[in-house]
Specification:
Chain A is an alpha+beta fold. Helix content of chain A is 24%, strand content 35%. Chain A has eight helices and 20 strands. Chain A has a six-stranded mixed β-sheet with strand order 6-7-8-3-9-10, with helices on both faces. Chain A has a five-stranded antiparallel β-sheet with strand order 13-12-11-14-20. In chain A, strands 15-19-16-17-18 form a five-stranded antiparallel β-sheet, with no helix packed on it. Chain A is elongated. Chain B is mostly helical. In chain B, 79% of the residues lie in helices and 2% in strands. Chain B has eleven helices and two strands, in the order αββαααααααααα. In chain B, helix 1 packs across helix 11 and helix 3 runs antiparallel to helix 4. The structure holds adenosine-5'-triphosphate (ATP) and magnesium ion. Adenosine-5'-triphosphate (ATP) binds next to helix 1 of chain A.
């Protein structure tokens, strides 16, 4: 049972730094999601663990073993990638047995381990097929079975579900969660740019942007108490309002808002107030924003309102309205102070 | 086909036939006809006989066919081995020593760029003295063929390697497979279609090689093209034609067999 540790890992291609001094620990048995927009360096971080890129500086540890200088085949990690990468010239069972044979596992045990891995992923019936005879979802299951058959301590998954359609994806997501319950000792590093996957599956989420780790915490923390504008807007939907911090609150376009103070922003400074759209309610209340309704979308269970408040677009998701106000109407929105978070104003938003 | 209307398609076929038939097909047909003939009547061969084939199937002619097959087999096998190895080496060098890799690539281009007569001559000069005395042995013919065709093997394997998606090797390595295991179980099997295509190409080129062979062949190692040349040179056009047909047929049979392997391999 071992986790993964990045110690100050920097990766550069030529002069471009694509991973900047990453410090991150995946605890033994934990599922860590690496979430971030395209090009933020997630795959690079994963490949540094697998051994396919060499860090310019820093160390990668698996358990307490420094693997930075080890070739990929000595690292003992399982890896599942978006394109499945099943060996097209081998049947499913040979694919799953590949790692065991490569590691010279005793012949007698191989068949049992293959059967076990196929069973776990529900692919027993397809053992004698070639990969091209399988659907995308089935191929991905085989890829997972292949990675699990060698019983790695660490499983690296690089957007394993992004080649699948939405329904299959949610099914596979549930399966991955089940697999993790069955294998509580395996640490997983799960790269994705899909926040739903990250929030559903992960014990903790690391948010990356432009080669840097922005934030790391439990999904709940990141959602409720984001620490940066980037996290707030990337994990879930957010209203980010420019405010001036006052004693015991904030001032937004002349409206005093009663919100909990933040440690790193002093009174008088400008900051960003983050309020989730679904935490805004219609009508006047403790913290009220008044403006003109500019957009109204019916989304089944909810209505999405866009209100122009002193030139800022404020989004609110409210339970479906019996009688929606007409566009152009003056509306009031309010929110509970403890539902809002004051953030330091981002220098550059990713 | 990009052409959809029926008349247009006919026109394309007609143009194709007008170019293809005289340039490619007719000479072969004439050779085949001549191989059964005893004389010319006007523009066409006439008379019908199997005598030329009877002659081709025994004695010196048969020896020449066997010689050609053995030479081509040895040359293409060693060319494939060397070409594959060098292509793999260049690929490995690409990350570490790009310059050296490019130098090796250029080196393997040389036999294509240099006329084969020159290749023959250079081998003759290089191996005419002890301790490397190969002149007058079958080895020098095989060597010349190997040098000439290795370039093609190297190039086709290089092209195939660059098309091979690295995810397979990486998946194999992450599963704990050593580089040698990856090569044997993953890379080479995935390259098999290209390897067999390269082997076929090398074999065919070697079967037809004449100019370097002419400079090097010892009296006891006469490949078929040399015999064809000798026959036509002394005016036995019809037996030369029969030998040429035998040469074509033997090459085609081997190529077909090799492409069988290829379709089987790529079907998997
Ligand atoms: N082999 C390479 N050579 C040069 N630059 C590279 C190479 N591989 C990746 N990069 C660059 O590194 C940066 C990070 O790439 P990476 O693949 O880690 O992004 P990612 O977060 O996984 O993105 P995505 O979500 O699109 O997969 C990108 O800007 C990319 O252009
Ligand atoms: Mg990626």
């Amino acid at each position: 049972m071992s986790g993964i540790t990045f110690e100050n890992v920097t990766v550069a291609y030529g002069r471009t730094v694509v991973l900047d001094a990453l410090d991150l620990t995946v605890r033994p048995g934990e599922v860590m999601a690496l979430l971030g927009p395209s090009g933020s360096g997630k795959t690079t971080a994963l490949r540094a663990v697998a051994g396919f890129v060499q860090p310019a500086s820093g160390r990668v540890l698996i358990g307490d073993r420094d693997v930075t200088a080890l070739p990929p085949h000595r690292r003992g990690v399982g890896m599942v990638v978006q394109q499945y990468a099943l060996f097209p010239h081998m049947r499913v069972d040979a694919n799953v047995a590949f790692g065991l044979k490569a590691r010279k596992a005793p012949r007698a045990g191989i068949a049992a381990r293959v059967a076990e891995a196929l069973e776990m992923t529900g692919m027993t019936a397809y053992a004698r097929r070639y990969p091209r005879e399988l659907s995308g979802g089935q191929q991905q299951r085989v890829a997972i079975a292949r990675a699990l058959a060698v019983r790695p301590d660490v499983l690296l998954l690089d957007e394993p579900l992004s080649a699948l359609d939405a329904r299959l994806r949610s099914g596979m997501l549930a399966e991955l969660a089940r697999l993790h319950r069955e294998l509580p000792d395996v640490s997983m590093l799960y790269v994705t740019h899909d926040q739903v996957e990250a929030l559903t599956l992960a014990d903790r989420v690391a948010v990356m942007d432009s080669a840097r780790l922005q934030d790391c915490g439990t999904p709940h923390d990141l959602y409720r108490r984001p620490r940066s504008e980037f996290t707030a807007s990337f994990v879930g939907d957010a209203n980010l309002l420019p405010v001036t911090v006052t004693e015991g609150g904030a001032d937004f376009a002349g409206t005093r808002l009663d919100v909990p103070p933040a440690g790193d922003v002093a009174p008088g400074a400008s900051a960003t107030l983050c309020v989730r759209p679904h935490l805004l309610a219609l009508g006047a209340g403790p913290n009220t924003l008044r403006g003109t309704l500019t957009e109204l979308q019916w989304r089944g269970a909810t209505h999405r309102l866009c209100v122009d408040v002193a030139g800022h677009r404020v989004k609110a998701d409210v339970r479906e309205l019996r009688e929606a106000p007409p566009l152009g109407a003056e509306v009031a929105l309010h929110f509970a102070g403890e539902d809002a978070v004051l953030l330091p104003t981002g220098v550059a938003r990713g | 086909m990009l052409v959809h209307s029926r008349p247009a398609r006919w026109a394309v076929w007609a143009a194709f036939a007008a170019v293809f038939l005289p340039v490619f097909a007719l000479p072969f047909l004439v050779i085949v006809a001549a191989s059964f003939a005893t004389g010319w009547s006007g523009a066409l061969p006439s008379g019908a006989t199997l005598a030329h084939y009877r002659d081709a199937a025994r004695g010196d002619a048969l020896d020449a066919l066997v010689t050609s097959l053995l030479t081509a087999l040895a040359a293409s096998a060693s060319a494939l081995a060397v070409g594959t190895w060098s292509a793999l080496a260049v690929q490995a060098l690409r990350t570490r020593a790009r310059r050296l890799g490019r130098a090796v690539d250029t080196l393997f281009m040389l036999p294509v760029a240099v006329p084969s007569v020159v290749v023959g001559l250079s081998l003759l000069v290089a191996f005419s003295r002890p301790p490397l005395l190969l002149n007058g042995t079958p080895t020098i013919v095989v060597l010349a063929h190997a040098v000439l065709v290795t370039a093609f093997a190297h190039q086709s394997v290089t092209a195939a390697l660059s098309r091979l998606d690295p995810v397979y090797e990486q998946a194999a390595a992450s599963l704990g497979a050593s580089p040698a295991h990856v090569l044997r179980r993953v890379k080479l099997p995935l390259l098999l279609p290209s390897l067999s295509a390269a082997a076929g190409l090398c074999f065919a080129l070697s079967m037809g090689e004449l100019s370097a062979t002419m400079m090097l062949y010892p009296p006891d190692w006469l490949p078929l093209p040399v015999t064809v040349f000798a026959a036509t040179d002394r005016g036995s056009l019809f037996s030369g034609a029969a030998l040429a047909v035998v040469l074509m047929g033997a090459t085609l049979i081997v190529l077909t067999a090799v492409s069988r392997i290829r379709t089987r391999a790529s079907y998997r």
